[in-house]
Amino acid sequence: MKIGVFSTFMSPQATPAMIRDFGRRAESMGLESIWMGEHVALFDKNTYGYPGSKDGRIPVPEGGGMLDVTATFGFLAAATTKVRLGTGVALVPQRNPIYTAKEMCTLDWLSDGRIDFGIGVGWNKEEVESCGYRWEDRGKRCDEFLEVMRRLWTEPVVDFAGKWVKFETMRLDPKPIQKPHVPIIVGGYAEAAFQRAVKFGAGWYGFNLDPNRTKEMLGRLDAAFAKADRKRSKDFQIIVTPPLAMTADAVPAYAELGVDRLLVNLGSQRPERVDARLGEIETMVKKAA
């Protein structure tokens, strides 16, 4: 099992020097990948709370904000040579699919094939709507956008006539380094998310899951494969971020469940806490070896 790290880089702590140093340290200590969450904007009032915290709010520093994932990965790709970079997750239904296809294949090209495209439909109703889309149909829109991107990454010339996207004889180059395209890793726990993983995914991503919840979710994933008259292959990646409080002793339990990549949550980005946390994560890397 490979060990990576999940971090939502936030200002003011996530300076260029901090991110550059973090990427190089992560790579030198043997971490397989760096994954980053995405929100283009945050709101003082939300219809639904953030599922990753007790109070329903993303813990952003006072006066700070989340960095853009595409720009940050371009920066990290230039500062590293081996570590993979994954979106955890890109909020596809609120993005422009043509721009997103271009961004991801460009990142893949510039990083020499080190990009994983983790995707989800999102929880923030206000964010989806502020980007110009309806909340209620985000799942179906996500599927259409993924189909657009997949075709643009793999076909020399594309015609497309969908509900949200229509174009003729479009070319998008350069194509991704990875074949057949940038791996799509589907996140989420709804039945539709598991079906999306079966249809589009090179893997499935679960966030903040202990071993028991991971086992439950894998059962639901396999049921979705069975419903599609398919069986999960060995190449299909299972990627999990455990709870922040997880200790190194729990690492073997994830390996026994067949988790391929464990993305440990970095947590606080205060310099002294990053130093301590990377020491803890290095212990987990040794446990997984």
Please give a handful of descriptors for the protein shown.
single chain; about 290 residues; alpha/beta; TIM Barrel; 8-stranded parallel β-barrel; two-stranded antiparallel ribbon; 11 strands
Describe the model.
The protein contains nine helices and eleven strands. It has a single domain, classed as Alpha-Beta Barrel (TIM Barrel), CATH 3.20.20. The relative contact order is 0.15. The radius of gyration is 18 Å and the shape is globular. The protein has an eight-stranded parallel β-barrel, surrounded by six helices. The termini are close together. The mean pLDDT is 95. 39% of the residues lie in helices and 17% in strands. Helix 1 packs across helix 2 and helix 3 packs across helix 5. With 289 residues, it is of the alpha/beta class.
Brief characterization of the structure:
With 289 residues, the chain is of the alpha/beta class. Helices cover 39% and strands 17% of the residues.
Side by side, the strands of the main sheet go: 1-2-3-5-8-9-10-11
Structural class: alpha/beta
| Percent range for β-strand residues | 15-25%
Q: Which CATH-level-2 architecture?
A: Alpha-Beta Barrel
Mean pLDDT: 95
> In angstroms, what is the radius of gyration?
18 Å
Q: CATH topology, what is it called?
A: TIM Barrel
Range of helix content: 25-40%
Q: How many structural domains are formed by the residues?
A: 1
So what's the CATH class?
Alpha Beta
Shape by Cα distribution: globular
Distance between the termini: 7 Å
- Count helical runs: 9
Sketch the topology as an H/E string, one letter per element.
EHEHEEHEHHEEEHEHEHEH
Instruction: Profile the largest sheet.
Output: 8 strands, parallel, barrel
What is the H level of CATH, i.e. the homologous superfamily?
Luciferase-like domain
Low-confidence stretches: none
